[in-house]
Structure to design on (230 residues):
């Protein structure tokens, strides 16, 4: 069965960096686009980034553009999110989600999420 | 403020039919598919409706989606207590090159 397991969350000071990982299994990882979606405490869902199945195309939310970088290692079935220059408003649960074979918000499987807290 | 606009709350009694609206523009809902997600507190969202009106396997047929122009709706017929949850619409925006989520609607079963 499809599994997505995020890791790497934690408490970090403003301006510092953090790298999230998402280990995927149960599907052909290199055939699907992958997403990061976050949810601040008590707030709604916010899309962060999508990376195409082959890693060639990436789209970022304006709120993270220039600070966050998505990557994927199809040989390891793993998705990453490098988060630099973190701000307090980046505090959220970060979910990775499996997309479709084209970029569209068809997110049929989600991980349980990893909490990132940005605080001094 | 979300570009896709949903009412923050909705409610109904058991057995009732309720709808949740999602309003967008020509660059998102007007030109792309709409998706709906259900999320219970402390859990990951679940895909409820895809491509405007399609249900994934396992989603009860009490849930249905529709789209007209730049707006979409999620309908729940025969409302049940277990439908008390948060619901989000989503769509791709051609102009922003972004995935948009609505602000979410909290459904309360009275």
């Amino acid at each position: 069965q499809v599994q997505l397991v995020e890791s790497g969350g934690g408490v970090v000071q403003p301006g510092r960096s953090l790298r999230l990982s998402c280990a995927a299994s149960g599907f052909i990882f290199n055939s699907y686009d992958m997403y990061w979606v976050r949810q601040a405490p008590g707030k709604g869902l916010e899309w962060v980034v999508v990376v195409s199945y082959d890693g060639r195309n990436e789209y970022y939310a304006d709120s993270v553009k220039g600070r966050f970088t998505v990557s994927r290692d199809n040989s390891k079935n793993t998705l990453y999110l490098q988060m630099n220059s973190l701000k307090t408003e980046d505090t959220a649960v970060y979910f990775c989600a499996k997309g479709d074979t084209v970029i569209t918000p068809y997110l049929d499987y989600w991980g349980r999420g990893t909490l990132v807290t940005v605080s001094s | 403020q979300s570009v896709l606009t949903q009412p923050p709350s909705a409610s109904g009694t058991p057995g009732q039919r309720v709808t949740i609206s999602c309003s967008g523009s020509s660059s998102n809902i007007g030109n792309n598919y709409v998706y709906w997600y259900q999320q219970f507190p402390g859990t990951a969202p679940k895909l409820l409706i895809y491509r405007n009106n399609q249900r994934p396997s396992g989603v009860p047929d009490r849930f249905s989606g529709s789209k007209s122009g730049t707006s979409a709706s999620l309908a729940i017929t025969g409302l049940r207590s277990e439908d008390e949850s948060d619901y989000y619409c989503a769509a791709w925006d051609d102009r922003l090159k972004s995935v948009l989520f609505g602000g979410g609607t909290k459904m309360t079963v009275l």
